[in-house]
Amino acid sequence: MSEVVLQVFRGTTREQGELKEYRVPYVEGMVVLDALHYIQANYDGDLAVRWNCKAAKCGSCSAEVNGKPRLTCKTRIDSLPKDEPIRVYPMRAFPLIKDLVTDVSWNYEAKKRIPPFTPDKNTDWIMFQEDIDRLQEFRKCIECFLCQNVCHILRDHGRKDAFFGPRLMIKIAELEMHPKDILDRTEFLRKEAGVGFCNITKCCTEVCPEGIHITDNGIIPLKERVVDRYFDPVMWIFRKISGRK
Amino acid sequence: MANTTTEGPLTLRRDAWWVAPLLTVIVLTAFGIYATWRALEGRYYEVGPYLSPFYSPLILVDWWKFSPAILILWAPLGFRVTCYYYRKAYYRSFFWSPPACAVRGLKSRQGKYTGETRFPYILQNVHRYFFYAATVVLAFLWYDAFKAFFFEDGFGVGVGSIVLLVNAALLTMYSVSCHSCRHLVGGKLDIFSSCPTRYRLWRWVSALNEHHMFWAWISLFGVALADLYVRLVATGTIIDVRLI
Ligand code: SF4
Ligand code: SF4
Ligand code: FES
Ligand code: FES
Fold first, then answer.
1. Is the ipTM of this complex over 0.85?
2. What's the DSSP call for residue B126?
3. Which of A98, A230, B102, B119 is the most exposed place for a label (fewest CB within 10 A)?
4. Does A84 touch chain B (CB under 8 A)?
5. Where are chain A's structural domains?
6. Kind plus residue range of the DSSP H or E element containing A7
7. A149 to chain B: nearest residue by CA?
């Protein structure tokens, strides 16, 4: 392979934008973002691409490569089919700004609505590793929003009004499972964040570049906590008798 | 929201995303047909010391005119239908909600989707009760597996004894790896260090839970094959080989 053919989405609206074809010299080990940079440097300087680290750590370069949500800096050209052009589209769940750049600000706005970490006034701050292992998995999140993009509730059903999406579900899980947090977000989780909307079809987990088990370790345990509170009569009676939350 | 789109092609993916949902439809439909037929058949479920798992515990009462399997099958059936893994499997393959990642479902009802917040899907929240019920049934299956080693002439091992034992073991792995079980043994705690035993249990269940999908399928095949084996022996189609 001496040359790679890319078809990159160009435009400021999805209706009028279209794929434009480019030929880029192949270099061993190159990733899709390298090819996009080559296009910027040599053909179209105005190609809009968001990126920062080129090391799969800043979460900026999210796009859809051959229809799959990916980090372009983590997608090696040699991992893609060689006999067809590589198609690069912007993320579909967010408003398009230009070319491959979308407006992901909704994620930050929704995040602000999550009740923040709330420790007890007299917390002693000694924590054990076994208590924070779970949270550390969630802390690996780089906020690439690929999971938000692929989640059908946001992507296909447009329910940003009712469901916070997988990224924010694990943010809530991180707070809820924190050994030093005393706030109870169960009602918030059910009503405002809409955990019940998730039908655990696991696409978020499939696309997460950090390999976070979003559904198994985050969303399902949260759903179970909601069941404890709202759907389990035995737990309800137990709480009444023991006076515990 | 302007500039996000739910129109256009079903997907921009070009790989064979449809293979997994198609396989799921084929296998689950085949199992559904077989299990329904066997549950309604109402005979060939017992032979020698062997009892088919579809009919265990065997409840024979005068007032029930139909197959005894119906009296108990609701428990394992409800357990599987509300299982977090099977939910994923059938939401994707049967309901196309979504059929695969980054593939649009056929019906993209902008702003109308309610997921598991409304009837009937809100009932999925009773999964842990089916877990309890299925655990009771499982205890009977272990009893059946134990009984399968005691023939008319005393202790022995037939192929059927092994089949029923393996079946009970696979179903146990499926049950123990359940997400509700994981939550109940320790997942609900925020401070593991104050409950070391529950923490250890949770770690153990979590390790199995990672492979819950595997246990879900293998135990499904296991239970169907165990029933088929009993039926084939009961109808005289094959002879149960005594190993000991
Ligand atoms: S598992 Fe839930 S949150 Fe994750 S993509 Fe599917 S519906 Fe969205
Ligand atoms: S959870 Fe994974 S996919 Fe979602 S934003 Fe974080 S790193 Fe990206
Ligand atoms: S450029 Fe930072 S994650 Fe890709
Ligand atoms: S049996 Fe699958 S999650 Fe409970």
1. yes
2. G
3. B119
4. yes
5. 3-102, 105-242
6. strand A3-10
7. B102
